Amino acid sequence: MILSCVIAFGKNRGLGFGNKLPWHLPDDLKNFKDITRGHTVIMGRKTYDSMGKLLPERKNIIITRDKSYKIPNATIVHSVEDAIKECKKEKEVFIIGGGEILKLALPYLNRMYLTHVEAEVPADSFFPEFNINEWKIISEKFHPKDEKHPYNFTFKIYEKV
Ligand SMILES: NC(=O)c1ccc[n+]([C@@H]2O[C@H](COP(=O)([O-])OP(=O)(O)OC[C@H]3O[C@@H](n4cnc5c(N)ncnc54)[C@H](OP(=O)(O)O)[C@@H]3O)[C@@H](O)[C@H]2O)c1
User: Which of 16, 54, 91, 94 is an S-S bond match for 125, by CB 3.0 to 4.6 Å?
Assistant: First the structure.
């Protein structure tokens, strides 16, 4: 099983503020949907709260410490390791945030789909620091800012070396 993450973050690695995304970038959301559709997504409880709904056409796994937590049609687990065990037989599974869960999942990741947003925005949740020497970039695509996208951004796919 390939464990991946799909995340957008800004110049300071900020990825969220006030339990919301710091930007609205429709083509990044489309990229996220294209990558994750039909697969399992794993998220922290706060990311689920920030979305306010389960993602359709995907199996949703939510990580919480709360043993009584229940969401209809979602799988609830209490650690990243248990989330991974839930999808052992799948080809590729996606960690979709937020910062707390990414920090715990980083050692297990094989692939990262990162959108580097050229924005300096206030943030209270961050992508964890990672050792660039442990990763190679296998794909890179620039998206310029336009009337729907206030910032330039670049889609990069990293694989563990
Ligand atoms: N830019 C992006 O691509 C992107 C993607 C996703 C999310 N976000 C943003 O990220 C922010 C949310 O991220 P966050 O870091 O605050 O929270 P998070 O990682 O989504 O969720 C944190 C929660 O996970 C659970 N958790 C954490 N460590 C755990 C452990 N060791 N064992 C069991 N459960 C554990 C806890 O849930 P309980 O409190 O229920 O126990 C904790 O409150 C929001 O602003 C959201 O918009 C951005």
Answer: 16
| CATH number for domain 2-160, candidates 3.30.70.870, 3.40.367.20, 3.40.430.10, 3.40.50.1370 | 3.40.430.10
Ligand 1 mutation pick, 30, 64, 79, max ligand atoms within 8 A of CB = 64
Given the CA of residue 6, which atom of ligand 1 is nearest to it?
A: 3
Query: How far is residue 32's CA from residue 158's CA, in Å, rounded to a whole number?
Result: 15
| Confidence band for 13, pLDDT divided at 50, 70 and 90 | very high
Query: Burial letters for 16-29: b for 16+ Cβ neighbours within 10 Å, e otherwise?
Result: beeeebbbebeebe
How far apart CA 22 and CA 50 sit, in angstroms, is 12
Question: Is residue 14 within 6 Å of ligand 1 at its C-beta?
Answer: no
Query: What's this model's pTM, rounded to 2 decimal places?
Result: 0.98
Contact by Cβ (8 Å): 63, 77: yes
Is the Cβ–Cβ distance between 115 and 154 less than 8 Å? yes
Q: What is the pLDDT of residue 96?
A: 98
